[in-house]
Design goal:
The chain is mainly β. 9% of the residues lie in helices and 57% in strands. It folds into four domains: 18-128, Sandwich (Immunoglobulin-like), CATH 2.60.40.10; 135-234, Sandwich (Immunoglobulin-like), CATH 2.60.40.10; 241-318, Sandwich (Immunoglobulin-like), CATH 2.60.40; 339-470, Sandwich (Immunoglobulin-like). It is built from three helices and 36 strands. It is elongated.
Length: 472
């Protein structure tokens, strides 16, 4: 039984191996290095292998524009069969030296890429270099084109070396466009070309991709440069065509949206205008949108042939700005006008009698919360008429400078605190004893602090009125 188990595991591993291999491909290159002159191409042998189900197509290219890479044979590779061909790497306008050429092998239609570095020594003097054609650029086309109108295609080209390119073929292709044009570039010149294309007005509306290829001919050899493809759409005759005029002012944006029926039928369909949720809070539209869906304002539009409809969408952040300014002013006024001295009053039960409170300890906590000193600070507190102030003061606390017994209000206690430095805290404590047992609890009056600010202004502030609860 123990001998069978390893064989079983080996069979499982072998059965899984093709599955792993089927998800990948390999690319190998040789020799390790080539030595060429500046006007030659280096030749490398490339072997491709894959275990996919059918014939796979591959692409070979370099991410750097300094190298022209071509293959001897189309890269159509049968499954489970090594495919060997030759790739030619031509340097474009470089100085002599040793280079590592980055080469990417990509499975067509997927993101699978194998990367390699091919080493090459280029000989010859810089003066003997031949500038081969090297062109790069981009193309633009309106996002939506009307097949009844001229289609304007803008091509931006750049000559990347110092030779004159007087005869360039510009091939513009898509599912509905098939046009050829001519262009010319001077040494290191950047230029914008505008081409006009027309298509059959009966072409169906569709999504399309524009590709532009530049071909430069050198001694009966063509050099091809493909510009990045551009996606666009062919619109139908019966679509609503919006145009937006934006008028901006301080914290306010007004959009005049004009919707036109350029078709030949009556159109009834919704029109959506995207707007972030925070902008919608400050936006008014006229006429009012029928609904809001997925972050877009939606109107139900019905237009006859050739008619237009106007929508006005105004986003106004002025109320928000006013609210922010008012909040800032209130905050500044609060910090400017608030009392720099904070007084907190609290009390705790020290002893009880007959189920009620008989003795309390009162704490007065003072804090200078400003960065300036406070002068001549005094605290005036009131002991309720039902209690009396005890004379035994704790060590380290300030003794009252004056006590006055009032027949109706109680005992007025005054403390001379003096100067309180920035961010300094002081604590005053005293004890009171009730003449009667206090049941349930008692509320103590507020304490009043009087002081002089750093600029000589006399001010006062009050503490809280603490309540002491006692359930017995």
């Amino acid at each position: 039984m123990s001998a069978v188990r390893p064989i079983l595991w080996l069979a499982i591993v072998m059965s899984l191996a093709p599955v792993v291999l089927a998800q990948d491909f390999s690319a190998e290159f040789n020799p390790a290095q080539q030595t060429i002159s500046s006007d030659q191409a280096a030749h490398y042998n490339m072997t491709l292998f894959h275990n996919y189900q059918g014939v796979e197509f591959f692409e070979v290219y370099s991410p750097e524009v300094l190298w022209d890479i071509r293959t001897k044979d189309p890269l159509n590779v049968q499954p489970s069969t090594p495919f060997t061909t030759t790739i030619m790497v031509q340097p474009l306008n470089i100085n002599p030296g040793t280079y590592g050429v980055p080469v990417h092998v990509k499975r067509t239609g997927s993101t699978k890429v194998r990367k390699a570095i091919l080493y090459m020594e280029v000989t010859g003097s810089p003066s003997a270099l031949t500038y081969l054609p090297a062109v790069r650029g981009t193309a633009e086309i309106p996002a939506f084109v009307d097949p009844r109108e001229d289609i304007v295609i803008t091509v931006y080209l750049e000559n990347q070396n110092r030779r004159n390119l007087s005869d360039l073929d510009v091939k513009v292709r898509s599912d509905v466009i098939n046009q050829d044009y001519k262009a010319a570039l001077g040494p290191l010149e950047r230029k914008t070309f505008t081409f006009t294309a027309r298509v059959d007005s009966t072409v169906a509306p569709q999504q399309d991709t524009l590709t532009v290829t530049i071909i430069a001919t050198e001694k009966d050899k063509g050099f091809q440069f493909d510009l990045p493809p551009v996606d666009y759409a062919v619109r139908s005759h019966g679509q609503l065509v919006p145009s937006i005029e934006v008028v901006k002012s301080f914290l306010k944006t007004a959009r005049m949206i004009t919707i036109t029926n350029n078709g030949n039928i009556v159109i009834q369909e919704p029109f959506s205008f995207p707007l972030p949720w925070y902008a919608r809070l400050f936006t008014r539209a006229s006429p009012k949108p029928a609904r809001t869906e997925q972050g877009q304002l939606v109107w139900d539009i019905a237009l006859n042939v050739g008619h237009t409809s106007e929508l006005r969408v105004t986003t106004n952040y002025i109320p928000l700005a006013i609210a922010i300014v008012l909040a800032a002013i209130i905050t500044v006024l609060y910090y400017v006008l608030r009392s720099p001295l904070v007084v907190k009053k609290s009390a705790s039960v020290l002893s009880t009698r007959e189920g009620g409170i008989s003795e309390l300890k009162v704490l007065l906590e003072l804090k200078n919360r400003s960065g300036k000193p406070i002068r001549h600070t005094t605290i005036v507190d009131l002991v309720p008429r039902i209690a009396e102030l005890l004379k035994d003061h704790e060590m380290g606390t300030i003794a009252p400078s004056k006590t006055v017994r009032h027949e109706r209000k109680g005992t007025i206690v005054k403390y001379e605190v003096g100067d309180v430095m920035p961010y300094e805290e002081r604590v005053i404590s005293y004890k009171i004893k009730s003449t009667l047992s206090i049941l349930g609890g008692v509320s103590l009056p507020v304490a009043v602090a009087r002081f002089v600010t750093h600029n000589g202004r006399e001010r006062n502030t009050q503490s809280n009125a603490p309540k002491v609860n006692f359930l017995g």
